[in-house]
Amino acid sequence: MVLDSTGSRATSQRLLSKEEVSYFHTNGFVIKRGLFSAGELAPLSAALAADPDICGSQSSIPSLDGRMWKVSEWNELSEGYLGKLPRLSRMLRNTEFLCGEESYFWDCKLVRKTRDMEGTVDWHQGYAYWYQMCVFPNTVTCSVAVDANTKDNGCLNVIRGSHLLGRLDMVKTGEKVEMADPVRVGQILQRLELVACELEPGDAVFYHANMLHGSSPNQTNVPRTMLHCTYNAKSNSPIVPEAAPKKVYRRTESLDDDTLIRGDYDFILDGQIFRTPGYYPPLPRIGTPTQSC
Ligand SMILES: O=C(O)CCC(=O)C(=O)O
Ligand SMILES: [Fe+2]
Nearest residue CA, atom 7 of ligand 1? Predict the structure, then answer.
């Protein structure tokens, strides 16, 4: 067995088994414990503690209860930590298993909730935002817990089986808040189970583009940090390439799984090209592919 310097198990155990892939298709999500070791994530945790402002990259997103959340987004695969992590072999292979074909990098987000920024994330589906670009909901997100994610500090919540509901309408509440129609979500929650994804650092949850997900506010004094990496299936490249040039299929070359533990990256936060803060695409209108990223 190959052990990394923190004693984590071999990379083969970081690949989803057939049973886990089947669980994903039935439930819309699957939790993979120990996808990353503490040693691999420690440099990122330290960089975030030293620069909680994340190089000024965070956008503020309003939520229905008024507890804003902040997100940093990037779709540039840099030679830094944040550009290399999504290219690791285990990320590409696992998302290929789940997409059923070659997957390629779509984008990444870092969501960090603190006592000052409690961050309620209202229920939504990823595909609500990608619908205008892609004909199938065949994207998979892998959300990695960078620190302990608990119910108290606002872990990710998913609704088991909601990937089978199809794409739900998003509604605008007030000026800015966009979320899956809350009346419908209420009905769904009477029928399907809410699963709070409590994770240790390094655990990850993979979920389907139509999985309803969101998160509750952080009610503790410890941060809750999640790194969301999304991949699209090769055959599901945007229908109007000019409207989404950065999302068009191009092969994502995989990197060895020991890249981070070897420290083989040029920088962590400073140097990464993030999307301009404040950028948050308006929900596209049905019928016209206008979204550009
Ligand atoms: O980090 C979270 O709690 C969820 C964030 C999320 O779903 C998103 O950014 O699309
Ligand atoms: Fe999301």
Answer: 214
